[in-house]
Amino acid sequence: MAEAQARKGPRGSDDDKAQQAAEVRVVFDRLRKSMKQIALYRHNVDRYAEYLEPFTSGMRDLLDKMSILAVKVDATGYKIGQHVVFDDESRDGNLVFPLWSVGVRMLMFKAGCTAEEMQKFFLLCLSGSDAEKKGREDIITALWKAELEHIEYVVVEGFKALADDDAEEVEIEIDKVVAYLYRQLQSNSEDYLRFARISSEDLDLQLDSVDQMRGAIIQGVTATPADRARVQGSLVREESRQLTKLVTVLFQLLELDTTAENYEDVAEAFIQLLDALILQENFTAIDQICLRFAHSAAKPTLSPQQRGMVERCAERFRTRMGESQRVQAIGQMLNTGLVKDANGVRKYLQSSAT
């Protein structure tokens, strides 16, 4: 069977793949926008389905035509063949790296996939990068427990070059496995889904030097403590840059994309950020946000409507700063005698009193 499939080759020409990738890319662009909304309005859980609807409806249309959509996963994106359909190089709310880092090398979305399944899958991806830091279960375990009937994945676990192996050759062999799985899943055969649980005998017909194939899970050597420490350090450094990114995105949204309809959501996002910074005792950042409001309102490129919303948002932010529960929380910090940023607290109290 595998030999016959190899003679048939992948479905369609490179032009067909390019056309298919272009269609898929349009739908995944909607996913990017939807997940950005979710990241900004995490408190609006009841509206997640609404935010994702443009993407989920597009995916259902694609799957009605394709039956199964298989994409390869690399460190920064999803691909069809060599065509990138979704890329994400950040680690803040990343939908790709958490999967790739635990060995996922292919995703398969099957016809019948519901909006609920897609929402559950991508929310697990969104939280996957924080799982190890916060002591939660890894994303593979979470996906397995989620029992997503119409979303499958191929995992290559813990591959590592041994003393007498060349790291590049090992990576090439992994790529061969994934490429073979991809070709079979794109074949015209009626039993193409069998290859989501491929056997080592089938792979032996295509590969000469890949050992210990066990279905879709390929076992290998686990990462060393040094490897884990290096990744953990990288994640900590990335987290220190998240605040600046979040503030920048919020102000861009306020200045460019906010309308009368979504103003309340944007303004509430700033208040949630205020509370988070108070808990972190990061009063310097709060002072910088106050200054940023003044800078934004003074931009000559803003329309009168946008300038009015910036000023209203700034006024709400300062009003909430002076509310009794927040001032009392700061008073409790001062009573402990362990304030991290006394100068920042002084500026906070001055701003909230104006």
The H/E string reads HHHEEEHEHHEHHEHHHHHHH
What would the average pLDDT be, to the nearest integer? 76
Number of domains: 2
Strand segment count: 6
Strand content: 5-15%
Q: Strands of the largest sheet, in order across it?
A: 3-2-1-4-5-6
Fraction of residues in helix:
55-70%
Alpha-carbon distance between the two ends: 77 Å
Structural shape: globular
- Supply the helix-strand structural class: alpha+beta
Low-confidence stretches: 1-12, 159-165, 188-220
Description:
The chain is an alpha+beta fold. It has 2 domains: 2-233, no CATH class; 241-353, no CATH class. The chain contains 15 helices and 6 strands. It has helices at 2-8, 14-40, 48-66, 97-101, 115-128, 139-146, 167-185, 200-204, 225-240, 242-257, 263-279, 283-297, 304-321, 324-336, 342-353, and strands at residues 68-73, 77-80, 83-87, 104-110, 151-156, 217-218. The chain has a 6-stranded mixed sheet with strand order 3-2-1-4-5-6, sandwiched between helices. Helix 2 (14-40) runs antiparallel to helix 3, helix 3 crosses helix 5 (115-128) and helix 12 (283-297) packs antiparallel against helix 13. The longest helix is centred in the N-terminal third of the chain and has 27 residues, at 14-40. It is globular. The termini are far apart. Mean pLDDT is 76; it is low at 1-12, 159-165 and 188-220.
